[in-house]
Amino acid sequence: MDVALVPPLMVSTGFLPTGSLLQSLIHICNEVCSMEKLPVLQARNISTMIRRIKLLTSLFEEIQESNGPLPPSSILCLTELFSVIRRAKFLIQDCKDGSFLWGLMQTELVSNQFYVLVKELGRALDILPLSLLKVTADIREQIELLHRQAKRVELFIDLKELERREELLVLMGSNSEKNKKNKGFIDLVKVKDILCSIGLRNTMDYEEETLKLEAEAHKQAGSGGLIVVSNINNLISLVSYCKSIIFIDDEFEIPSKEDLKVQSTPSNRYYDHSSSSQSLIPNVPDEFRCPISLDLMKDPVIVASGHTYDRNSIAQWINSGHQTCPKSGQKLIHMALIPNYALKSLMQQWCEENNVPQVQSSPSSSSDLERSNSKRDLYEHAVDHISVVKAAVDAVKLTAEFLVGKLATGSPDIQRQAAYELRLLAKTGMDNRRIIAEAGAIPFLVTLLRSHEPRIQENAVTALLNLSIYNNNKILIMAAGAIDSIVNVLESGNTMEARENAAAAIFSLSMIDDCKVTIGKRPRAIPALVGLLKEGTPAGKKDAAIALFNLAVYNANKVSVVFAGAVPLLIELLMDDKAGITDDALAVLALLLGCSEGLEEIGKSRILVPILIDLLRFGSPKGKENSLTLLLGLCKDGGEEVARRLLMNPRSIPSLQGLAADGSLKARRKADALLRLLNRCCFQSQNQIG
User: Fold this and answer.
1) Which of 632, 674, 631, 675 is nearest to 4 (CA)?
2) CA-to-CA distance for 312 and 337, rounded, in angstroms?
3) Repeat ARM: residue ranges (predicted)?
4) Highest mean pLDDT among 226-235, 381-390, 431-440
5) Which of 7, 29, 258, 427 could form a disulfide with 57 if both were Cys (CB 3.0 to 4.6 A apart)?
6) Cα(268)–Cα(262) distance, rounded to whole angstroms?
7) Taking every pair of C-alpha atoms in the chain, what is the biggest distance, in angstroms?
């Protein structure tokens, strides 16, 4: 690309006054140097970066004390140094506050970020006129040395971190579905050692790590893709699993390696925690083992998350104060333990075929749980939540029919419980969803959407959302006249969760083209989604944005989305890191370019172009593509004004050139088109001046 495209005045705008600039530099350097409790990961890169910044602090302080005029090149250098140090601060803060496990998985990427920052620091020092600055000889020598080191710095990746990561990946692979029979104490000892080496040493550390991983998964949901989110969820499961096994109770402590040498058993046997003796039961199927004790379950029960555990083990877990599912880490919305009769029947059959004695579960832990949990009596008559396996389809059918009968004739309390049980039953398995619909649940659930009782309404709309995942049910839900009631819940539901699940239901239903038309014709549907875009939680905003995108695929709905005021909100959400829906917002904006009203409304924003330029550098691959789509559309419509704003921004041309060379296929094509368009604008401007 011709260098002439870079605007000659790019250096002159955006500088702070010299005094303010130096003060800001000293302040941010002190912030970096005073950071405490630095992480174990990236220790060398972080300490080296802080040492370099300390040296620069001395330079800035001497320049400030000299109180003399500065040459223009030094102002440019100081501005670049401020940018580098600020990004270094954010990077160190991310390493300190972010997930340690995710940091371990991203070791090369994070190390490369430190390397890039040091190289940029060296390039900034290239234009520092040290000979013209009033600084002492010692400071001059230190800065010259720092400059030389930065120029010849090499990428440093800690080999120990790579080894830890590889060990962890191997252990995670050995505990996968295909290799569950190989898991045992030795794996957990190794995992515990690895986690301890990166700073996870106690229950509190594990809980904080789970929260950080969940936050990272939410953050990556809009930019990282399904594979990245899946990898993070695997790490969450690993931490939750290790925490439940390692810290569940003193009696479940992992034995030392010396003890294991004495206790080691053949690979086809398992260790019985409950009796502290070895069992000779061979080849226990993995689905019959309790995820907590790894033993053959005696009394399998289902918790609110849908996972099955042995009653004694999960009772001890809950009695010790935990309120989350040990396997998934999901918070339990109730503490009821519902018998898994289908699995128990299969286990009994297996025990008989393999001559395995069946031991009855001890009632003590069950009664302890009932005494400790005051809410248990609320679920005394709860319908058994049966996992669907081939042998249990008839049982599920009977359960669904029974629950639908309660929806039709029961009291509000019974309706609430029945809707909740259907919500759980519809959560997993297409067979469940089909059977529930065939039992006639949908019309009754639609009627309950008008309930003034918050939990009934919430359970009903969530059950419909779960049922709508099965495509045939989408037609049945629409035929039952559910749209108006779902829109009512979306607009003024009794709880925020109900409103958000209503938005998710609209998204699910709008997967069918005819439903896009029907929903779009409802005058309150799209404004209600825009309202949730403004008022909802981050998850609710994401649901609303995805639903709007689906509806806007149908051209007639684009104008409605624009007139509902979505554009300013979507642009605002591009700057909201907490919302985490950058890619979703960009996708909707790119769609709205397809109508003249949308193009006009988007063109009114004065802050969108700088945001899009930043996203060209830091956005996800999909986000970069949509940013390019928006910039192209704005340049074609806004012409010279938008093109001039792009040319005046010093980051735009390098970003476009980078995408034209290394971006995805779509990004390269769009970046080339935008660069050609800017080149023509620049050429026309020069001809007019000439």
Assistant:
1) 675
2) 11
3) 440-482
4) 431-440
5) 29
6) 17
7) 97
Measure the CA–CA gap between 187 and 192, rounded to whole angstroms.
Answer: 9
Does pTM top 0.70 for this prediction?
A: no
Give the C-alpha separation, 561 to 615, whole Å: 24
pLDDT per position as a tens digit, 45-60? 999 999 999 999 988 8
Give the integer Cα–Cα distance in Å for 628 and 616: 8
Q: How many residues does the chain have?
A: 690
* Per-residue pLDDT, 665: 87
Contact 245, 254 (CB under 8 A): yes
Under 8 Å CB-to-CB from 678, ≥6 apart: which residues? 5, 635, 643, 646, 647, 653, 656
Q: Is the pLDDT of residue 409 over 90?
A: no
Residue 147's CB is within 10 A of a number of other CB atoms, namely 16
DSSP helix/strand/coil, 289: strand
Tell me the two tokens of residue 399: 């359960």
Question: How many Å separate Cα 505 from the centre of its chain?
Answer: 21
- What residue type is 540 in one-letter code? G
Cα–Cα distances (Å) from 562 to 430, 565, 626, in that order, read 36, 6, 18
Strand partners, 296: 289
Task: Note the Cα 441 to chain centre separation in Å.
Answer: 33
In terms of DSSP H, where are the helices of 469-579? Answer: 471-479, 482-492, 496-509, 513-521, 525-535, 538-552, 555-563, 566-574
pLDDT in tens, 54-112: 999 988 888 888 877 777 778 888 888 999 999 999 999 999 888 998 889 889 999 99
- Of 299, 271, 302, 268, nearest to 285 by C-alpha is 268
- Tokens read off for 638: 């806004």
Q: What gap in Å lies between CA 132 and CA 644, rounded to an integer?
A: 36
Whether the CB-CB separation of 164 and 198 falls below 8 Å is answered with: yes
User: What gap in Å lies between CA 315 and CA 366, rounded to an integer?
Assistant: 7
Angle at 648 between CA 643 and CA 651, to 5 degrees: 100
What is the distance between the alpha carbons of residues 669 and 675, in angstroms, rounded to a whole number? Answer: 10
Helix (H) or strand (E) holding 270: strand 270-272
